[in-house]
Specification:
mainly alpha; Serine Threonine Protein Phosphatase 5, Tetratricopeptide repeat; TPR-like_helical_dom_sf; TPR_5; Tetratricopeptide repeat protein
Length: 157
């Protein structure tokens, strides 16, 4: 992937306007078409633009294909998180939960836990969702973190 291409992708996202889907799809299509067919990064961006425009069903395929082809770990983690969020939005909660529970991505901070909490809530597992969210939050508290973690653990015991 060239730095110039990524710079232009970053510029696209900086100017992204979800109120003009046709223009956004056309602009991303130009960028995607600059890459070789089957380029994982281009596929991830193509999925991302659909996702950001609320066209989640059209995002799943490109996301999955990008992951199958292979991305460097940080990009793969980001796309996995995006895919899981999209699957949750589509009502495919179990798939989302599985992806998020298996996502080891320290560079994403607590984002996987936040999205896992949403997915767990979506399937009616309110205690597990709250436990996930509170456990993630507890490590950031200057005081009472240990107490909060213990209370969170009690939710599903």
């Amino acid at each position: 992937m060239t730095d110039d291409w990524q710079t232009r992708v970053d510029e696209f996202w900086a100017r992204f306007d979800d109120s003009d889907a046709p223009r956004m799809l056309a602009a991303m299509r130009v960028l995607v078409d600059e890459r070789p067919p089957g380029d994982a990064h281009a596929l991830a961006e193509w999925g991302g633009v659909h996702d950001a425009l609320g066209l989640e069903e059209d995002a799943v395929g490109p996301y999955r294909r990008a992951l199958e082809i292979g991305l460097e770990p940080i990009a793969a983690h980001q796309v996995t998180l995006q895919l899981a969020s999209t699957l949750r939005n589509l009502g495919r909660f179990d798939e989302a939960i599985e992806l998020l529970q298996n996502l080891d991505a320290p560079e994403l901070g607590d984002a996987p836990a936040a999205f896992l909490a949403l997915a767990l809530h979506s399937v009616g597992r309110a205690d597990a969702a709250l436990q996930t969210a509170l456990t993630a939050l507890s490590v950031h508290l200057p005081r009472y973190g240990r107490a909060l973690a213990a209370y969170a653990a009690d939710l599903t015991d």
